[in-house]
Amino acid sequence: MHDIRLIRENPEAFDAGLARRGLEPMSAHLLELDRIHRQEQTELQANAARRNQLAKEIGQAMARKESDRAQELMREVEVLKYEAVSTSDSGEQLEALLKTIPNLPLADVPQGADEDDNALIHTRGEQPAFAFDVKEHDAIGPALGLDFETGAALAGARFTLVRGSAARLHRALGQFMLDVLTRDHGFEETVPPVLVRHEAMYGTGQLPKFADDSFQTTDGRWLIPTSEVSLTNVVREQILSEEELPIRLTALTPCFRSEAGAAGRDTRGYIRQHQFEKVEMVSIVAPDKSDEEHERMTGCAEDILTRLGLAFRRMKLCTGDMGFSAARTYDLEVWLPGQARYREISSVSTCTDFQARRMNARFRPMGEKATRFVHTLNGSGLAVGRTLVAVLENYQQEDGSVAVPEALQPYLRGLNRLEPA
Predict the structure, then answer these.
(1) Which of 387, 418, 384 lies closest to 403 in space, CA to CA?
(2) Looking at 28-42, 141-155, 252-266, which range is the least confident one?
(3) What is the DSSP string of 357-388?
(4) Domains in the chain with CATH codes
(5) Catalytic, out of 158, 168, 257, 314
(6) 137, 230, 264, 313: which is deepest, by most CB within 10 A?
């Protein structure tokens, strides 16, 4: 959430940031609500002070048995109480509006409207060459255990039953990713709740604006769309010492998304599901370390792709393609030979202090009394289902089998090939 004090200090910069997001100027309206709210707060304080004074005077009048005077003062108190209750809700209006405004892009984020305006940073790895006609994963997968029909019969569209060789590969990928992040990159493995309260979803920016994109249970809890929600909120309402930073957490969890805004996209196959598994990375850092940590986290995700022998590219998202809470986002896109295109497999974002303000997550710098908001970062390391798709397409063989990447073979007891049923 945005700090109204910073908007007061530089409304032009705030509106310029909104313009980069494709939004109309809002500072004038926000500052008018802020002015009214502050004026009302001053009036309420004066109202409360006057009622306190009247309470003393009523007591004195009653002690002197001046009942008429006491009644007159009590009537004035009732008027003041009514005036206090009838004060407008400008403060609530201001807060509600601030909750819906996305984070402002950092200066180096390219300007653009959609994914066509994203900037290529670099390309890594070699695209495999095939001596036969390559297939997409939804043609390769069923013989290995991607059971789209049974998944749909059990739960409807965008659900898949994964069994047999595909299930073993899926498990191996998740374990491999966790091992790389914890053993080689210093993340702490975590098993977080996948059901969270409203406050947690609000803290990372899923609520209130994107409620339709998530699933809610009958008791009011939310199924996490990503474990970013659980992991980032670990520091909610806390004041950390600077010595505790950075905090780096990772988790492999199921994730749930309604895909409300994805009608008609990726209806075939295993790319876009309502339920999927993802290894998430979350870092909580001091503000002066967030840019460095953003590069570091993106490199961690790239390391996993490199070890799997998959070709990929890094894209810096433009202003029109970034998520609500992000100030800068790198997407990693893996090469899918069956589709003959790069597809997103990881998204790594720095949110600066945007989420921290919503969570009231702060730290106290060494030697200082005042506190500051932490910076939060999150990213996929990686989406397990999409990585499975990438392995199937890049390692497919002419006979329908799939070679197992060398990095995964220890997780499959040395198996080097998945044979079709």
Answers:
(1) 418
(2) 252-266
(3) HHHT-EEE-TT-SS-EE-EEEEEEEEEHHHHH
(4) 4-99 (1.10.287.40), 115-418 (3.30.930.10)
(5) 257
(6) 137
**CA distance linking residue 179 with residue 383, whole number of Å:** 15
Catalytic residue from among 8, 313, 344, 357: 344
pLDDT digits (tens, 9 = 90+) for 272-324: 999 999 999 999 999 999 999 999 999 999 999 999 999 999 999 999 999 99
Lowest mean pLDDT among 92-96, 237-241, 283-287, 316-320: 92-96
Task: Give rounded-to-5 percent helix, strand, coil for the chain.
Answer: 45, 20, 35
**Residue 408 token pair:** 């995964």
Can you say how many angstroms the Cα of residue 169 is from the centroid of all Cα atoms in its chain?
Answer: 27
Known catalytic residue: 257?
A: yes
Q: Across the chain, how many H-helices and E-strands are there?
A: 13, 17
Q: What is this structure's pTM?
A: 0.90
**Catalytic residue status for 50:** no
Give the whole-angstrom CA distance, residue 421 versus residue 416: 16
Token match 């939004």: residue?
A: 23
| Chain length of the chain | 421
Q: What is the DSSP letter of 219?
A: T
Instruction: State the number of CA atoms in the 13 A half-sphere of 152 facing the CB.
Output: 10
272: annotated active-site residue: yes
Distance of CA 20 to the CA centre of its chain: 20
| SS3 category, 277 | strand
Q: Is 347 annotated as catalytic?
A: yes
Alpha carbon distance 86, 126 (integer Å): 68
Among 346, 347, 349, 380, the one annotated catalytic:
347
Select which of 51, 163, 171, 272 is catalytic.
Answer: 272
